[in-house]
Amino acid sequence: MDSEAKKIQGDAGDKPVVADPKWDWHPDVPLVNSPIFIWPPRPLVSLKSLASNWIELTGRVVFLVAAILSWLLLTRTVENVGSFNAGELGWIAHIYIRNMLLLIVMAGAIHLYFFRYSRQGKELQFDARPLVKKGRMFTFSNQVHDNVFWSLTSGVFFWTFWEVVLLGAQANGLAPLLAFGDSVAGSIWFVAMFVLIPLWYSFFFYWVHRALHWPPLYKRVHALHHRNINLGPWSGMAMHPVEHLIYLGSVLIHFVVPSSPLHVIFHLQFNVLISIFSHSGFESLLIDGKKRIGMGYFFHQLHHRYFECNYGTDEMPWDKWFGTFHDGTADATAMVKERRRQMYTAKPGQ
C-alpha cells in the first residue's frame, strides 16, 4: 500500500528527506496516506489497496478469523443469547470470560514474544528503550502492570458491555438484523461490512481522538493512555474507563446499519485487537528473517512521542487535511514541536 501511495502522491521532490533521528528503527519516510481517498478518484487503485488488506496474512485477516471462531464456537451455541430475564444471564458471563481470555492470549503472547523473551531482539523495534519498571506516573509504578490492570478491568468490562448491548438489541428486534443468504444484495452487503468496518473505525477514531485531546478531557481522561510514550502490546487498551466507553462506542453504528451478530463481534474485536497490534512497538513479526505479519504502527507511534499529531490513521487523510500529519521526517518533528510550543505558550483568549 505504501509504495502504491507514494507513486500517486509523490515524494519530497528534490529536497533530501531526513528521517527523525530519535527512532532506533523506522519504515521509509516520508510516510504517506493510503491511496483509497486520493483525488481525483482512482477506483482500481483504491480497490487494490483495500484488497491488499485481505489477500495477505494481515492483522485484519487474523481478527476476522478470531471473530468467526468466537461466533461459531463460543457464542452461537450458548443458549438465551439476548435474554435479560433473571436466571438466563449466563450468556453475559460467557462473553465476558471469552473476551478476557482473548485479550490475555493476544496481548500476553505478543508481550512474551517481543519483550519477556525477546525472541526478535531489537530488530524492527521503533524505540528500543525498555518499558518503564519504576515510574510514579503509572499505577503500581510499573508500566506493564499499569497497562494490564486497566486493560483487564475497565477494558474487558466495556468491551463486554457494548457487545451485550448490541447482541441483546439484535436478538430483541431493536437493531436491524442482516443474515447471509437472505438475498443476493444482502449477501453482498454482509461481506462488504467486513471491509467497511475498518473504514468506519478510521473515521470514528480520528474525531473521537481529537475530542479526547481537548484539554479538560485530556487531563481527566486521555492522559492515562498517554502515560505510555514508549509502547508495548498491553499499552493499546490501557485507557481511562470513560475513554473505553467512548472508544468502543463506535459499535453503536449497528443500531442504524443492518448487520449480524458476527459483524458486532468482529467490530469490537477489531477495535481491541488493532490497539494491541498497533501498540506492539515492532513493525512486523519476523519468521525466518522475513516479515510475516504487520504489527506496530509507526504512524501512531509518532503520536505517542509527539502528542499533537497523527490523531487518526493513515487510511483516511484527516490529519493531512487538518495540518496535523507527521510523516516521520525531521522537518515534520520540528513543525510539530513549534505547534506545541505555540499551543502551550498561548495566552488565555488568544
Structure summary:
It is built from twelve helices and two strands. By secondary structure, it is mainly α. A two-stranded antiparallel ribbon has the order 1-2.
Would you kindly provide a written description of the structure presented here, covering whatever features stand out?
The structure is a single chain. By secondary structure, the chain is mainly α. It has two domains: 1-52 and 297-339, no CATH class; 55-293, no CATH class. It is 51% helix and 3% strand. It contains twelve helices and two strands; from the N terminus they run αααααααααββααα. It is globular, with a radius of gyration of 21 Å. The two termini are 41 Å apart.
Strand order of the largest sheet: 1-2
Rg over alpha carbons: 21 Å
Bin the strand percentage. Answer: under 5%
How many structural units, i.e. domains?
2
- What's the tally of helices? 12
Helix content: 40-55%
Described by strand count, sense and barrel closure, the largest sheet is:
2 strands, antiparallel
Described by the principal axes of the CA atoms, the overall outline is globular
Order of helices and strands: HHHHHHHHHEEHHH
Mean pLDDT: 92
Low-confidence stretches: none
| Measured distance between first and last alpha carbons | 41 Å
Q: What's the total number of strands?
A: 2
Instruction: Report the structural category.
Output: mainly alpha
Give me the secondary-structure topology.
Elements lengths: L1 H8 L33 H10 L6 H16 L15 H27 L26 H29 L12 H29 L2 H6 L20 H7 L13 H18 L5 E4 L2 E5 L3 H9 L11 H4 L8 H16 L5
Antiparallel strand pairs: 1-2
Helix pairs in contact: 3-9, 4-5, 4-9, 5-9, 6-9
